[in-house]
Design brief:
By secondary structure, this protein is of the alpha/beta class. It has 4 helices and 4 strands; from the N terminus they run E-H-E-H-E-H-E-H. It has a single domain, classed as Response regulator (Rossmann fold), CATH 3.40.50. The chain is globular. It has helices spanning 17-28, 47-54, 84-89, 114-140; strands at residues 5-11, 33-39, 78-81, 98-101. Strands 2-1-3-4 form a 4-stranded parallel beta sheet. Strand 3, helix 3 and strand 4 (98-101) form a beta-alpha-beta unit.
Length: 141
Amino acid sequence: MPGFKKVLFLCTGNSARSQMAEGFLNHLSQGRWKVRSAGVFPSYVHPLAIRAMEEIGIDISGQTSKSMDEFRQEEFDFIITLCDHAARSCPIFPGQGRRIDWSFEDPAAALGTIEERLVVFRRVRDEIKDRIKEFLKLESS
């Protein structure tokens, strides 16, 4: 997509944080960004991440967990890590643009009842949303 900025969100499992970030940037940028997400050790899209995003009207149920290896040959304007493990494990991508490291708690590691775990997913979801809104303001100015 010529003229579009491209971003890759990375985290450990590509199951929650990076999936939510992908969903938010797609939603908030209204298609003006080419957005990907991947993991160091990809797994699955966490059902509570899907549910937390669905609660605010963003459907990520069609997204899939992918390995960062799938994107090694692709050029990005931004590589954004969402956890310390991904920041340490992130390889150098050829043609890599600006590297940004954000660190969010892993909601998939939360313990307790479904409702207690969902509280953590919602909090992390809202933190990611706020960070992406700030990012978009900076990149549009």
